[in-house]
From TrEMBL:
<protein>
    <recommendedName>
        <fullName>Sulfotransferase</fullName>
        <ecNumber>2.8.2.-</ecNumber>
    </recommendedName>
</protein>
<keyword id="KW-0808">Transferase</keyword>
<feature type="domain" description="Sulfotransferase">
    <location>
        <begin position="1"/>
        <end position="145"/>
    </location>
</feature>
<comment type="similarity">
    <text>Belongs to the sulfotransferase 1 family.</text>
</comment>
<dbReference type="Pfam" id="PF00685">
    <property type="entry name" value="Sulfotransfer_1"/>
</dbReference>
<dbReference type="GO" id="GO:0008146">
    <property type="term" value="F:sulfotransferase activity"/>
</dbReference>
<dbReference type="InterPro" id="IPR027417">
    <property type="entry name" value="P-loop_NTPase"/>
</dbReference>
<dbReference type="InterPro" id="IPR000863">
    <property type="entry name" value="Sulfotransferase_dom"/>
</dbReference>
Length: 155
């Protein structure tokens, strides 16, 4: 979404937006693996990482050019930090407790000292862990609205 459009849509909005950004190299590699996994093999049997990079350069992504999307949210978070929290995936991996507390603060529900002492943040991280989520029955069966098996997202 272009910056101006994003700014206009959030300006009077009571909602808060959390945007999680990931290193572009990781995005491209993940997209390539995911696409090869979910799309019919006969259509993408020769789908290379270079093809993914070419799509990126051309801006052929679901929500428009990746660079514009990320920059739009980043700029909005700098200009108007109240409704937009810009988080980096790498920071979430490096210091997950700090990022959960940052998210809680942003949502106006910071952790109390008692919650911190009772390890509530760590419990939330465990509940949200990939190993826990991938073992939930709801994520082992069924498909998404676009027909992708839920378990595909957790392999």
């Amino acid at each position: 979404m272009p910056f101006q459009t994003l700014h206009e849509s959030l300006k009077d909005s009571p909602c808060k937006v959390v945007y999680v950004c990931r290193n572009v190299k990781d995005v491209l590699v993940s997209r390539w693996h995911f696409r090869r996994k979910i799309v019919r093999k006969d259509l993408y049997s020769n789908y290379s990482l270079e093809d993914t990079v070419d799509e990126y350069i051309k801006g052929a992504y679901l929500f428009g050019p990746f660079k514009n999307q990320v920059l739009g949210y980043w700029e909005e978070s700098l200009v108007n930090s109240n409704p937009v929290l810009f988080m980096r995936y790498e920071e979430m991996i490096e210091k997950p407790e700090a990022q959960v507390m940052r998210l809680a603060d942003f949502l106006d529900c910071p952790f109390t000292e008692e919650e911190k002492q009772s390890r509530t943040v760590e419990k939330i991280l465990e509940l949200c862990s990939l190993s826990n989520l991938s073992n939930l029955e709801a994520n082992k069966i069924g498909t998404s609205t676009c027909g992708i098996a839920h378990q595909t997202f957790f392999c």
